[in-house]
Amino acid sequence: xxxxxxxxxxxxxxxxxxxxxxxxxxxxxxxxxxxxxxxxxxxxxxxxxxxxxxxxxxxxxxxxxxxxxxxxxxxxxxxxxxxxxxxxxxxxxxxxxxxxxxxxxxxxxxxxxxxxxxxxxxxx
Length: 124
Hints:
- It is globular, with a radius of gyration of 13 Å.
- The protein is mostly beta strands and about 120 residues long.
- It has strands spanning about 5, 10-15, 20-25, 35-40, 45-50, 60, 70-75, 80-85, 90-100, 115, 120-124.
């Protein structure tokens, strides 16, 4: 079993930055592929960013490429999502997810564990 706890959400003006953090516990962090998803009101959950278990492969949604950076710190069992140049359409609840697999995945059903989510609100 894996527990994921997100933090770092909040209210920011358009053009600003936020850094989300996801702390993982319960299983060897280095054996997990990780991802970030988000869900805006009235919309389906969507993939934001993720990386493979090794960390060598990363993927981003087209909507966040060049603005968001995902990283991991195996020593701290933490995944970070650095978000810059934020837009009002980035407003959503952001979820950290983990999967028992090698490869990065972009669909929610491929993930085994989820955090409770953290709210990000970008004002115009």
